[in-house]
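Field: COMPLEX_INPUT
Field: COMPONENT_COUNT = two
Field: RESIDUE_TOTAL = 674
Field: MODE = joint
Values follow.
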Amino acid sequence: MSRIEKRFSELKKENRKGLILFLTAGDPSLSITEKLIPKIFDAGADIIELGIPFSDPLADGPTIQKSFVRALSKGVCLKDILAMVKRVRKKTDKPLVFMSAFNLVYKYGISRFAKDASSAGLDGIILPDLIPEEAENVIPVLKKAGIDPIFLAAPTSDAKRLKKIAEASKGFLYYISVKGITGDSKPSAVEVGKQVLEIKKTTALPVACGFGISTPKEAAKIGAVADAVVVGSALVKIVGEKGTVNSKIENAVKFVKALRGSLDKTKRSCFQKSF
Amino acid sequence: MSNSRKLPDSKGYFGEFGGRYVIETLLPALNQLEKEYTHAKSDPKFKKELKSLMRDYVGRATPLYYAKSLTNYLGGAKIYLKREDLNHTGAHKINNTVGQGLLTMRMGKKRIIAETGAGQHGVATATAAALFNLKCDIYMGTDDIERQKLNVHRMKLMGARVIPVTSGSKTLKDATNEALRDWIGSVDDTHYIIGSVVGPHPFPMIVRDFQSVIGKEAKKQILVAEKRLPEMLVACVGGGSNSIGLFHPFYDDAKVKMVGVEAGGTGKTTGRHGATITYGTKGILHGNLSYLLQDKNGQISPTHSISAGLDYPGVGPEHSFFAKTGRAVYKTVSDKEALKAFELLNRLEGIMPALESSHAIAQVIKEAPQMNKSKIIIVCLSGRGDKDVTQVLDMAGND
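Field: COMPLEX_OUTPUT
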């Protein structure tokens, strides 16, 4: 059982919803990211998603774009991020996943990436611009190395595509809860709930919802109709804001605790049976 | 090579290049577009409508003009100019936007968006929007807005909104990012008219097909004028739409040499250029796998060209395929060489080429003298240079 699968099975037993936090690796510096990870886990995160800075992100809104610019100005690269994961892995056994533009992994070399990511202790990867049809040579390499490929499903995906996406994914499935980019518009719990039900018809995988979820209240609302929620831009804003390292960490921890508290008030609902 | 005309394959690949590297949200729209285009292609009504608009609105066929003075001056091969500059709105871009405008109507979408560098594609899209009564938003980098003011006004006059893009290098690449981001959120009622043979499948195929009218006409015209095919085709390559448009119909004519001309900027060593095939490596940007200007970590490199339309780090996947298989060769022309060619064509022929097209002319200046007088070159004069006059004057003032 992978770390991701283990975590979701624990959540199921505890009758709780998963909380996934997104951080831009290297924003404002790689050492701060390294300090933040264990603290954010301690504050209640179940999974941390590390955004790999890219010069030309497409699915990301202004907040994450700016964080990428800050990180890249420090010269952060995939190799250094993997080394940081390796160090952090000694401090926590909670799941860590990457979210990266496919070009960065392609350029690094897919086999080399799978090997290095596996030895660093990475658990999964989300490649937003890689659809299952283009991933036929990537999926087996990742799976063999124990890296869960996590694919995205969208509000525009029909039943046939949802099936394909679910079949390609391992660990969990990432549902994009809005038609738009990160941190953009607000998802509707009714709409999200409908599509999550559709996904549940095709797979036993847990479904995490992200894009546009920024407050504890919204997390609880979407959490009620999904297995986990992803909060990104709102945390990135806190970490990127002015202030001392300690105050950033303090505010981030406070925010994650608030999300956790709000989410834990959400009782498992109609999805209990399905995973 | 004989089955090359069938490319791309069903997954949108030209050999190892192309494909669909997009977020899932856009997939249904790409499928819808592909389906609609396949239907339209074999629909006599669509073909008739496109043909009549090309003739009566765009002003096709464009002339294939024998540039006698330029030929005599260079003293080698006979030079023919395919006059895309004489199209309505002054460039080849309108061939694609009218075609995709018709597709937008067929899909029942009410709004079109586009990216633009030099502003030619923006103007052509705004024109199609006015023609078909569609809402229109054009994304344009603030650096390009500055150097292509005239085109910004033209777009606004036709009722389009020009949205300034301040991210990244503030040029074509960033305008494309922003247009794609818009489309991710607006895909239900909006069609994205990509301006070049780039983007995810089916865009490189659709744009190529609409631009192939350039090469089809040129082939007929040269057979009338010279009773034979040319030895060489020359065209500039940014994303690569005018060049693919000229090259593609000649693909199976193996004796016709194809030369794509990339922006050499201020030279390889300065790192300030847009020569993607010449200096790039394989990678993924804006939805396709192709050659790319990127650093060792896969971050996209900043580019430079005197011409906004060639100032782009990617290139159409079909060009990468042509380069890899050796069907076409790709050369670079510097900013300075392009400027000289701009001046020369004005003086010798009374024709003002766009700075993009000036790159192609500059390559002809290098090639023609080395060829026998019995040989023939066709060069695509992809657009007119009115939009560049201020910039050229400013630079002359700085010398």
